[in-house]
Amino acid sequence: MRRLACLITIALLLAACGQPGAQNPAAPPIITPAANTVPTTERLVLMTHDSFSVSEDVLAAFEQSAGVKVEVLKAGDAGGALNQAILSKSAPLADVFFGVDNTFLSRALAADIFLPYESPALAALPAELKLDPSSRLLPVDFGYVLINYDKAALAEAGRTPPTSLEDLAKPEWRGQLVVQNPATSSPGLAFLLATVAHFGEGTGYSWQDYWRDLRANEVVVSQDWSDAYYTQFSGSSGAGPYPLVVSYSTSPAAEVFFSEGKLAEPPTGNLIVPGGSFRQVEFVGILKGTAREELARRFVDFMLQPEFQADVPLQMFVYPASPAAALPELFTQFAPVPEQPATLTPEAIEQGREAWIQTWTELVLR
Q1: CA atoms within 13 A on the CB side of 160
Q2: Which of 40, 93, 137, 218 has the fewest CB atoms within 10 Å, measured from its CB?
Q3: Distance (Å, rounded) from C-alpha 165 to C-alpha 152?
Q4: How high is the pLDDT of residue 316?
Q5: Is residue 263 a contact partner of residue 253, using CB atoms and an 8 Å limit?
Q6: What is the pLDDT of residues 306-349, one digit of tens each?
């Protein structure tokens, strides 16, 4: 599960999540594209979350070929940006929206704010990412939320990483794990969804039972990813006391990337266990009411084409939707894709999300 899911600080991981991802913390500056050498009278507005990023030369190439200036309107985290788009649907603020992820997909479609568009590039994308059969929201990237661990801290304690989610509720891991509040954090919500999918409801040992056990085992709750990763977690620059943290599968790769050559290997690792990760998929769509529908279609095509897709990993630290886009070596070395992620349909998430968050709050915080 959920874009785990940017080329400014490590705080800009995932996504799309996202969502995958996505709340990706510490928003980058709004992009100011390179000057267009072709005189233009058209302006295309892209509404997105604060963690959207693209190389200036990549965006400038589209602007020149399309004869348009792209204005990037950043509107907070993914959920907040979507809410703004829904509230302004009678007078849209933009032409294109990027950043809806699968945790809010059904809500976005029910609001009926997007135009259908089956981009020619859609046919080459994996079926498991194409979650909207109406083609109103098209997949651009994906990422995974999971648990990162501090290699040195575990080695010093003579421990090997946990091998299952169940291990985290055992006495030997008491007071070792930091999670985020799912009511305020995208990765926190994604990890909650992973446990719902993995343990289920009404079973012999449900997700509610699991969180009761985590609370009894002194799980630590942060309000956002930045505090959890940089302040509480011991494996990053925060040098906190806790060796396990909910983060992203690309966090180890980002540690190496942002060290600017100081690190050959990451100080952190990914806890890849059955059901222990949640995939966040991020989508793009054309907003109803745009006066530039043809240009909007071209921009959607651009986001699914090789140049933009190849730019995604080291800009937003998520995986490109296109299997034809080569991953950078950092990803192949340090950001393997989990083979057994937890899965929930967008419809199940929409139906259960608020009740799950409320129940989690009662179990863990009260």
Answers
A1: 2
A2: 218
A3: 21
A4: 94
A5: no
A6: 999 999 999 999 999 999 999 999 999 999 999 889 999 999 99
User: Is residue 85 a part of any domain in this protein?
Assistant: yes
Residue 355, amino acid: A
DSSP 24: -
What pLDDT is attached to residue 81?
86
294 with 157, same domain? no
Asked if residue 2 belongs to a domain, the reply is: no
With 0-12 / 13-18 / 19 or more C-beta atoms within 10 angstroms meaning exposed / middle / buried, residue 51 is buried
Question: Are 297 and 323 in a shared domain?
Answer: yes
Ranges of the chain with pLDDT below 70: 1-41, 237-238
Residue 129 structure tokens: 């990412």
Side chain identity at 205, as an amino acid letter? Answer: Y
CA-to-CA distance for 247 and 269, rounded, in angstroms? 11
Strands (E), 188-340: 220-222, 244-248, 268-271, 278-287, 319-320
Q: What is the pLDDT of residue 20?
A: 38
pTM of the model: 0.84
pLDDT 10s digits, 53-89: 999 999 999 999 999 999 999 987 787 888 889 999 9
Note whether 124 and 84 are same-domain residues.
yes
Rg of the chain's alpha carbons, rounded to an integer? 20
Q: Among candidates 2, 7, 45, which has minimal Cα distance to 330?
A: 7
User: Are residues 352 and 296 part of one domain?
Assistant: no
Whether residues 239 and 151 fall in one domain: yes
- Parent domain of 244: 145-277+340-364
Do 322 and 355 lie in a common domain?
Answer: no
CA distance 224 to 356: 18
Q: Specify the DSSP class assigned to residue 126.
A: -
Q: Which residues in 30-168 belong to E strands, given as ranges?
A: 42-48, 68-74, 96-101, 114-115, 138-150
> Is residue 254 included in any domain, yes or no?
yes
Closest CA to 98 of 305, 296, 291, 282: 282
pLDDT of residue 186: 87
Same structural domain for residues 158 and 264? yes
Give the Cβ contact number of residue 260 at 10 Å: 7
